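Suppose a colleague, Dr. K., hands you the sequence of a protein chain of 193 amino acids and asks what its three-dimensional shape might be. Before reaching for any lab equipment, you can write down a predicted structure in token form. Begin with the sequence itself:
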Amino acid sequence: MSDTAPAGHGAAGHGAETTAARVERRWASVAIVVVLVLAAMAGFIGIHQATMPQVQVETADPKILHLGGEFVETNLGSATEPDGSVTLRVVGQQYSFTPSCILLPAETPIKLRGTSPDVVHGLLIEGTNVNTMLVPGYISELPLRFDAPGEHLMPCQEFCSVGHEGMWARVKVVSRRDFAAMAAGHPRVSCVQ
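The predicted structure, expressed as tokens, is then:
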């Protein structure tokens, strides 16, 4: 055996290996710290959300939903409020939304209120950021606003059983003036009159 080290190994090579190992340990430490910080943040947020319930939770008895109160069929659809805003009430049930065609004004604050009497349904208005769940026994409320007239599909995006693929509605957004004309003399407005 020879006492001489192969080329590239020796005092200079050993120093480079030591430096490389030290740099790798530092980067590994940084990565571990980042993962620990993210895990701590996720844990804190999860615990905070679990211990801090929603400010307002409204319930509705799904067994008698259709018999009276806010979600009786004659009360569904769009209604103009005294302040000029619009309240939209929707019920999702296997396998349809009521009303099946929704009429809303553009450039107007809208409050969507919905629930379900049977299973969890998803309410999604395509082409917008409107996406919520309709859970039996609870009332979902969501503020929304449309900038321009147009038509949107509203499918159920939560699998609700074998008829799920046919569960959708249509949302027709019209100008404020046209909506006011259609709503004149009618307490509730939908595409189907």
